[in-house]
Amino acid sequence: MANWLSYTSTEGASPRLAAVIILYEQQRQRVLFVKRNPSLSFMGGHHAFPGGSLSDADTGSRVINAPDLRSARLLTTAVRELFEETGILLPDLTEAENGSLQSLREKTVSEPAVFEAFLEKKNIFIDYLNFSPAGRWVTPSFSPIRFDTSYFFCSTSKPCFAAPMGAHAEIVGVEWITPAEALKRRDGKSMHVSTPVVFVLQRLHTFPLPEALKRLRHTPGFSNTLLDYIEPFPGIHLVPLQSCTLPPATHTNCVLIGEESIYIVDPGASETSEISRLFTHIDEVCENVGGTPAGILLTHDHPDHCAAAEALSKRYNVTVYGHPASLGSFQNAEALEKGDFIEIPGSRPWSVRCLHTPGHHPGHLCYFEETTGTLLCGDTIANPGTIMINPDKHGDMGLYMAGLERLGKIPAALTVPGHGAPLMEGEGPAFFQKTLEHRIMRETKIKTAWEQGARSEAALLAEAYDDTPESMHPFALLQLRAHLSHLQETDLISF
Asked: Which ranges of 111-245 would DSSP assign to H, the alpha helix?
């Protein structure tokens, strides 16, 4: 299990600066999309707006009326990437179908500096005032590849021919699509788009263009409260919140479920700024879909999963739901048991099934949303990392391993762990199996060391956790004790 985050980081991998162009054709109210090569490791097969990473060669020297150098450089990036990926050269929408411009386009892919050199030679300037800032998005903290992306909107009344570079290039398709059609195709899963793209499309579809642009300009993302969430399925919002969790994790995944009635799962933020960010996100989701918060669901009551629950309960006047073992400290609470269903009303009714999965915590619950096939599994797995089973706090390794086996049989389309990256399609069941095998491997090493005469905790730790960094040995010791208890219970070792 690769460790994507450092043990000390609070932000995950450092995001790279990037920029994209939302090119809008006024007459037919269409947006220009590129289709990324399915073979790409990042967003392969997705439809996206043209754009890419800031290059050292993007100096911003040909941009006029920009508010600052950073903005000028990012706009240069967006215009250059549009040219590379589609053949459209702003500001005059020159089409690079053949001849010198096509040659320039091909050369720019490997040598970005030639783009600004060409603009200078032709005395072409890019006027910042012809573009509208349309938000700023940061890839969520759990991702191994992250971007801090500025969005620019550009409207044109002139139909534009656009074409990809070729079948083996980064971009394999170019398409003009209305926001309504794009959202329809996305909901039908025939078109894959990222969360920021959905955000833009929803506003272009819902509001007249001036109002849509206003909402894009003044998103929380553009006011320096960077939007850090994903919406893998319509009505499923995953918001990583900084929390007081254990390494290598730095965040807890808070998930919003539903459209008209919205349930909030595991609000684990303790810092005021993170709680405020969550409030902002919930309010915006509710405003966009006309929904209201309906309740809070807890997988368990460890602080990194429930720290903001009381504040949310009071702000929205909603009930906190969870296993009886997790509700002792909450004023407005209602118990859930194994097999209970939470029915979420809306245009397409959803049903959330409660699964009792003790081991990490006696009252640990998982939630399986049956309409979308989304499994919210709390602290049963982490991606990356392993889950702490602490016998000093009622952790039970046998129950935990049995839970892994049961969860691995659920055909989830989306599996969201309490910490780290979500798992799509068959990745979830495979990950549960892999985690179970890891625990079995660890117990085998402990049993072997025991049979070879190791008796002290120090000796067993040295043999069974020889691949664990010394800094993590205090945590490993607790895991060792949990495994020893399980081995004793199953008569595989005897004291």
From this structure: 113-121, 179-187, 195-206, 209-217
Rounded mean pLDDT, 247-274: 92
- Alpha helices (runs of H) in 290-357, residue ranges in sequence order: 303-306, 309-316
Number of domains forming the structure of the chain: 3
Q: Amino acid identity of 352?
A: V
Backbone angles phi, psi at 492, to 5 degrees: -85, -20
pLDDT single digits (tens) 278-325: 998 899 888 877 889 999 999 999 999 999 999 999 999 999 999 999
Here the CATH number for the domain that contains residue 255 is 3.60.15.10
In a domain? residue 214? yes
Is 495 inside any structural domain? Answer: no
What pLDDT, on the 0 to 100 scale, is given for residue 100?
A: 63
In a domain, 264, yes or no: yes
Q: Which residues share a beta bridge with 334?
A: 321
Residue 392 has pLDDT above 70, yes or no: yes
Q: Give 63-114 pLDDT, tens digit per residue.
A: 999 999 999 999 999 999 999 999 898 876 554 444 568 888 889 989 999 9
Helix pair angle (457-464, 427-451), 10° resolution = 130
Phi, psi dihedral angles at 200 (to 5 degrees): -65, -45
Report the run of H or E that residue 17 belongs to, with start and end.
strand 16-25
Residue 183 CA to residue 234 CA, distance in Å, equals 10
Percentage of the chain lying above the pLDDT 90 cut: 66
- Looking at the structure, tell me whether residues 207 and 287 fall in a common domain: no
- Which of residues 223, 251, 269 is at a domain's end? 223
Residue ranges making up the domain that contains 392: 230-441
Burial class (CB in 10 A: 0-12, 13-18, 19+), 61: middle
